[in-house]
Design a protein that fits this description.
- It is a single chain.
- This protein is an alpha+beta fold and 137 residues long.
- It has a single domain, classed as Nuclear Transport Factor 2, Chain: A.
- Helix content is 25%, strand content 34%.
- Strand 1 and strand 2 form a beta hairpin.
- The chain starts with a strand and ends with a strand.
């Protein structure tokens, strides 16, 4: 499975493709795509909320919920090549900047339903200027 890097226009494969996919899922508002209402996350709606313990809990819940949500049409997770093991808030400012470090398992052939090969993977989700900036390795 290969896609195009949104920044460079070059082919993107493997774990780099997974992180770009995760960034797309997290930065898309849930129910905003007409033919795919279950695609996306609650994060774009949460970024305007005041920083509080409740908001942090909502962020912690929104990330795995979006990535591991099963689509009714395909009966597959939004990103079947990645499963979150641990997520930790690594930076937070009063201006709404937040950084979450993610550890998980990367399944190179997970999109084919083959979970026999597994690798450790680490990435980061960054929220800045009231928007989801992205995730990367």
């Amino acid at each position: 499975m290969a896609t195009i890097d949104l920044n460079t226009g070059k082919p993107l494969e493997g774990i780099d493709d997974v992180w770009q996919s995760i960034a797309t899922i997290l930065s898309t508002s849930l129910k905003s795509l007409v033919m795919a209402r279950d695609f996306g996350s609650k994060m774009p709606r949460l970024v305007d909320h005041a920083v509080s313990p409740v908001t942090l809990i909502d962020f912690y819940a929104a990330v795995p919920e979006a990535i591991n949500r099963k689509s009714p049409e395909s009966l597959m997770a939004e990103e079947p090549r990645f499963r979150i093991i641990q997520m930790e808030l690594s930076d937070m400012t009063d201006q709404g900047h937040a950084q979450f470090d993610i550890e998980g398992i990367y399944y190179p052939r997970g999109h084919l339903g083959d979970y026999s090969e597994a690798r450790d993977a680490q990435g980061r989700v960054i929220l800045s200027d009231n928007m989801v900036v992205g995730s990367y390795v």
